[in-house]
Amino acid sequence: MRVISGIHKGRKLFCVDDLSVRPATDKVKGSIFNSLQHRLSLTNIKVLDLFAGSGSLGIEALSRGASHTTFVDDNKLTCEFILKNINFLKEENRSTIITTNVASFLKNNSLVYGLIFADPPYSYGKVDELPALLCNSRLDKNGYLIIEHLTGIEFPKSDLYNIQVQKRFGKTTISYFTRN
Fold first, then answer.
1. 118 close to 144: Cβ distance less than 8 angstroms
2. Fewer Cβ close by (within 10 Å): the C or N end of the chain?
3. Contacts of 80 (CB under 8 A, 6+ apart)
4. Which pTM value belongs to this model?
5. Burial of 35 (C-beta count, 10 Å sphere; 0-12/13-18/19+)
6. Mean pLDDT of all residues in the chain?
7. For 60-101, what is each residue's pLDDT tens digit?
8. DSSP classification of residue 114
9. Whole-angstrom distance between the N-terminal and C-terminal Cα of the chain?
10. Cα 17 to the chain's mean position, in Å?
11. 3 state DSSP class of 177
12. HEC states along 25-85?
């Protein structure tokens, strides 16, 4: 796993070697950021990486010009690896790592972000609720929410958000949301 582009291009990232983390493949990560470059300037944007796992999406955003990334994951070991990567890349001043579950973080945080990544485990039972929850209260009016999820999950229609694009990669689908 590596950083694809930006100031840290080509740098290899550390990741846990067990199956507790499902890092975004370079193909998926490349597709996400290629799509974003035509929709959203990452320069000076605040990023939230929920269910951060390896942290590769938030780190890629930092490499491409984001001003700050907040990484949230409830697994202490994965957060230690994110910290190791942040220290390795010397991005401590532009990063915050929070070891807690996403529901607790959202309950205790009211910040708004220009870009939100959510890559919950495939077993997470509330993926379809994330767009309404995040677009309503945490996403900037011109921002994007990107959810990586199991193919086949359908999101309910809502006045709170629009599904802009969905891209399928086998059993994984990437859905792009904006606020209404």
1. no
2. C
3. none
4. 0.93
5. middle
6. 91
7. 999 999 999 999 999 999 999 999 999 999 999 999 999 999
8. E
9. 35
10. 20
11. strand
12. CHHHHHHHHHHHCCCCCCCCCEEEEECCCCCHHHHHHHHCCCCEEEEEECCHHHHHHHHHH
